[in-house]
Amino acid sequence: IITGKKIGCICITERKHGSDAVNMETKVIDKEDHLIFTGEKLYTTNGPVADYFIVYGVSDVSDPRGTMYQAIAERGHEGLITNRLGIQSVPRVQIGQTLFNSVKIPRENILGGKGQGYKNLFSGLVAERCSIIGSSLGIGWLTAITGLIYTNLRTQFNRPLYDFQGVSFPQTQNFIELMAATELGFKSASEYNKTIDRKHFDQQKFVKYNAAFSSGTKYLASHLAQKISYETQQLCGGIAFTDNLRIDKALEVAKVQEIIGGARNIQL
Ligand SMILES: Cc1cc2nc3c(=O)[nH]c(=O)nc-3n(C[C@H](O)[C@H](O)[C@H](O)COP(=O)(O)OP(=O)(O)OC[C@H]3O[C@@H](n4cnc5c(N)ncnc54)[C@H](O)[C@@H]3O)c2cc1C
After folding, report:
1. Which of 20, 138, 246, 261 is the most buried (most CB within 10 A)?
2. 8-113: what fold?
3. How far apart are alpha carbons 29 and 56 in whole angstroms?
4. Domain with CATH 2.40.110.10 in the chain
């Protein structure tokens, strides 16, 4: 996966359990030498083209925290079926439905045994949120700088648009907020780095702090990306809706950042 020769995906979300992912219904039966997974996962990014599927399920739905497993299913495992969903905001990304029809996963593919799957789910979310912070900041800087260049080049009333305070002040505010969010993004990543070398990994307090910090920064950065691309679209006028500037596309992708890895409202 790291070399890019194989594609991986993560299967958490289900039809009835999105924000409430912990109460998932994908069923695990623990046999001596393998696990059997049965359930439906939705919105699996890369699912339709994936070679490896990190999947979560529970052996007792009344105790998901104590009985959650995490394992790797592989393309070709009997009963594993993927279908593509049409997601208009990101039409080129392969996002899908992943069906586990009594899929037998060998014991050596277990990443988190009974109960450990739950802990792995949450520590994995920290890494995911750090990456969403990165993509959100990327969208924010891309649109803010595009807007800055365009409003300096475009003239109306015989002056560059940027000469008008109604155009320059909102952009200045965007840059101030972006700089602050970027600092928080670096801080989230460096805090997460500490868990990679495992020095602090088992300290429950530290893990909770890390989860809260990355979640809060993801909330802020993704919302900011959406706000800045929307504002920039407004300040650039009609051309922002064309593929000359692609601000409209950036706005679509920014909106997705607010949903993935934990939707905005649930993060509050
Ligand atoms: C493009 C895309 C890619 C994705 N990729 C993946 C993937 O690779 N793997 C995967 O497993 N999932 C993936 N997802 C799913 C994503 O994680 C979920 O869509 C997300 O967690 C929200 O779940 P939901 O859609 O069921 O919304 P719901 O849980 O139904 O929530 C709807 C709204 O209600 C709010 N809400 C819900 N509960 C509360 C609460 N208690 N308090 C306040 N507000 C609340 C939410 O914030 C949201 O605004 C992807 C989704 C998209 C759109």
Report:
1. 261
2. Butyryl-CoA Dehydrogenase, subunit A; domain 2 (2.40.110)
3. 12
4. 8-113
* pLDDT digits 0-9 by tens, 198-239: 665 566 677 788 889 999 999 999 999 999 999 999 999 999
Atom of ligand 1 nearest to the CA of 259: 20
Pocket of ligand 1 (CB under 6 A): 9-13, 18-19, 43-45, 87, 90, 95, 256, 259-260, 262-266
Mean pLDDT over residues 136-144, rounded?
A: 98
Ligand 1 center–CA 45 separation, angstroms:
13
In the chain, CATH 1.20.140.10 covers: 117-267
The full DSSP string for 47-75 is GGG-SEEEEEEES-TT-HHHHEEEEEEET
**Average pLDDT value for residue range 34-47:** 98
Backbone angles phi, psi at 4, to 5 degrees: 85, 0
Q: Which fold has domain 117-267?
A: Butyryl-CoA Dehydrogenase, subunit A; domain 3 (1.20.140)
Ligand 1 atom with the shortest distance to the CA of 264: 47
ipTM of the complex: 0.98
Q: How does the average pLDDT of the chain come out, rounded?
A: 94
Using a 10 angstrom Cβ sphere, with 0-12 exposed, 13-18 middle and 19 or more buried, the burial of residue 10 is buried
Q: Atom of ligand 1 at shortest distance to CA of 45?
A: 8
Q: How far is the CA of 14 from the centre of ligand 1 (A)?
A: 10
pLDDT band at 191; cut points 50, 70, 90: confident
Among 170, 187, 181, residue whose Cα is nearest residue 229: 170
Q: Choose the residue to mutate in 43, 68, 87 for probing ligand 1, maximizing ligand atoms within 8 Å of C-beta.
A: 43
